[in-house]
Amino acid sequence: MKNALLTYIVRYPSAGLLFIQLLGIVLYPFMEDTTLGRAAFGAFGVVVLVSALRMVSRSPTLHSVAFVLAASILALTVTVELTDSPTLRLVLVSLESAFYFYATFSLIGYMTEDQRTTTDELFAVGATFTLLAWAFAYAFAACQIIAPGSFTALLDPDQPRTWLELLFLSITLLSGVGLGDILPVRPMARALVMLEEIAGLMYIALVVSRVIGLTIRR
Fold first, then answer.
1. Beta carbons within 10 angstroms of residue 165's beta carbon
2. pTM across the whole model
3. Is the pLDDT of residue 70 over 70?
4. CA distance 192 to 187
């Protein structure tokens, strides 16, 4: 069973990336409140980076950009944990957002480079969605550092929002189901929210519809 799963992930790397991202959603609630949990969060982030890099290497984009971003993120992750510098944390989350945006466009390029849809490209539809959600969540984190109080919520409205809350907001916006209980209250935060709402509509209208059309035609 284990060998069959590994073989499947090797054959369909997009499925592996999607599985890792979904696993993160399940594990993140247990990683935020303790030092050991935060260390595990950093280790899990490395796994996601490696998986995303593997997918970037399959796309027609420039691979060196992704590797430079990933190396910078790994170095800054260790530095931030040791120094806890707000400036370095801002640089880190900004680079993470840039990396996930780059990986998103790389996967879109991978899905649109031919005129037929493979099984791995079908999994890439879901993996691209999660990458885009992570990209905006890190953008929200950067916004929150630059402009404290950018987001509020029913629970502890004056406190900075946690990573899980920002990811929840990002997935909620991208899926088009609404804002939920977390609201943007500053101009920069509202601008990012509007951009993600537009990105979610464009992703479904341009990318998902194309993949579905090619699948039906095949």
1. 21
2. 0.86
3. yes
4. 9
> Dihedral of the CA atoms 145, 161, 14, 192 (nearest 10)?
-60
Could you tell me the residue ranges of all domains in the chain? 2-217
Q: Are 43 and 23 in contact (CB under 8 A)?
A: no
Q: Phi-psi bin for 45: left (phi > 0), alpha (psi -120 to 50), beta?
A: alpha
Burial label, 114 (beta-carbon count in 10 A; 0-12, 13-18, 19+): exposed
Whether residue 3 is predicted with pLDDT greater than 80 in this model: the reply is: no
Task: Name residue, tokens 């992570």.
Answer: 134
Q: Do 122 and 164 touch, CB atoms closer than 8 A?
A: no
**For the ranges 35-39, 48-52, 194-198, which has the lowest average pLDDT?**
35-39
Smallest CA-to-CA distance from 111 within 33, 200, 212 is with 212
